[in-house]
Amino acid sequence: MIYRETGNFVTNYFKDREIFPLKFDKIIVILGLLILYLYVPTTSEYTLSAHVIPILAVGLATVGLNILTGLTGQLSLGTAGFMCVGAFSTYNLMLRMPEALMSLPVALLFSGIFAGLVGIIFGLPAIRIKGFYLLVSTLAAQYFVWWFFNSYAWFLNYESSGVVAIPPKMYDYWGLGNLLGVDMQGYPARYVLALTVCLALTYFAKNLLRSNTGRNFMSVRDRDIAASVMGISVPRTKLLAFFVSCFYCGVAGGIYSFLYIGNVDLMIYEIDRSFTILFMLIIGGLGSISGSWLGAIFVYEFPIVFTWIGDTIFKGAFNTAVVENVSNMVYGIFIIALLIREPGGFAALWATTKQKLRMWPYPH
Amino acid sequence: MSDILKVENVTLTFGGVKAITDISFNVKEGEICAVIGPNGAGKSSMLNVINGVYLPQIGTVTYDGVERRSINPRDAAIAGMARTFQNIALFQGMTVLENIMTGRNLFMKSSWLEQGLNIGRARTEEKVNRLAVEKVIKFLQIESIRKTPVSKLPYGLQKRVELGRALVAEPKILLLDEPMAGMNLEEKADMSCFILEINKEQGITTVMIEHDMGVVMDISDHVVVLDYGKKIGDGTPSEVMSNQDVIDAYLGVSH
């Protein structure tokens, strides 16, 4: 076996804390990065626009929800609402701020902060209430945000149709495209930006998870009284979780609107999207960053693969309604099965598989 | 020695139920003080009043020279109180190492941004505090389980991990709620050794609720006896053992 842990001794506590302690893992990661940055942008425009970029956007939102729900244990149904705040802030920042100041990455950062602040406001009830009751507050966030952007046409620059296509000049990046001779509005360039943001934020989330903040989050989730007795400020921790989580959702919303569909449209941030992202989180595994990505890939790709099977094997026997219903049923079955058999989701399944392979052929 | 903790005339009621009635006692710096009494005597409530989980209706708690009626649990932790719980309040979803690291949270001064970016103070703090945690892990002899999720551990070890989590915060006073409940003889002996060593070697004042009279009489310097929310005895183990009220409470009175 090439992949093994034996003979790999950590000699200090610093090494013990590495994300990828094995040399083999490091090689895989470097190879993966090379593929993501060098090979994937050269694949077809269809692959990028229909598979990769949307997965990056919803996956990032799933990571965000994971910080709130998986790590801190605060249930939320407002994910799409917070994504919506992100998308609309990105658009308005790009539209109204001087071009010399704003570029898409900067706008994404600030819209994340806006979404985070909105998240703090709707997270305030979390200081007093827990669990299912908190769902009501985040549900209110979802509906309030939606109503708010629907009511004030200013945010859509008085576009009567309710959908604004994003003008090409917003992809300008201070003229970087011309400088490099790359079409910045094209999907490869969009993909590279989305990928970079997602990788950076995933790394950030992973760091939070393995440091004091992450432990504070988890301690509030597991036993809030014990946490407060140990000197952790529970209200502050909860609000921080809301801020960080909604920051991720906001950035994800910006990526979804700007780098994936290319327009700002209120209809795509309805409550079903919040549910979809919650499914991704549960199927992928609460509390695991890599699980969030696995869940996002599974839930997003399932209808596409199912349609493809229908088209190629059954010669177009499934129409879109069938695909949608079957997908929902499959998610439901997966969630029930996982909750009973493996509450840790795909991430835990993966860990078990790794463990089994390591022991193979012995059972223990 | 001076009194590190002074409980004065504390009364705690839940609605109409009087959990604690007018209790006063002092804990001297550096001693092991055992709080004993039959079930429902108000022992755990007393600890909860001391570190601010419950707010007493009447009375004050003077800790470290500061007199107050109530203290926020977080401020109590900052002031150097650490405690364990009767029915283990470990963070079940985390490993032993993560649980004990959480006990160091007051020593972590870096902001969440630094931690997220893994730069500056965040990196060094994680290393420095890990060393402190490893000392406690070694002291409690739980090196082999440091990466195990606590939910998979047997009861006795969970109690030990919880003691470690309290100890790693470097407290001035340690409040232990039934540290030996549900343990077998050897585990009790181990736990007694740990408590004695913490008290004698590191000089940490310990207030302990315990039901095992053998342990209480052996290791404590000072015993407070509660019954039905009232204090019925206070003194050295031998004084308490010969106190008629205490004997009546434990053995019953003939009618």
Describe, in short, the structure shown.
By secondary structure, chain A is an all-alpha fold.
Structure description:
Chain A is mainly α. Chain A has helices at residues 13-16, 23-39, 45-71, 79-96, 104-123, 132-151, 176-180, 187-209, 212-222, 224-229, 234-261, 271-284, 289-312, 320-341, 345-359, and strands at residues 163-165, 263-265. Chain A is 70% helix and 2% strand. The model of chain A has no long low-confidence stretch (mean pLDDT 89). By secondary structure, chain B is an alpha/beta fold. Chain B folds into two domains: 1-80 and 171-255, P-loop containing nucleotide triphosphate hydrolases (Rossmann fold, 3-Layer(aba) Sandwich); 91-170, no CATH class. Chain B has a six-stranded mixed sheet with strand order 6-7-8-3-9-10, sandwiched between helices. In chain B, strands 2-1-4-5 form a four-stranded antiparallel sheet, covered by helices on one side. Chain B is globular and about 70 Å long. The termini of chain B are far apart. At the A-B interface, α1, α8, α9 and α10 of A face α2, α3, α4 and α5 of B.
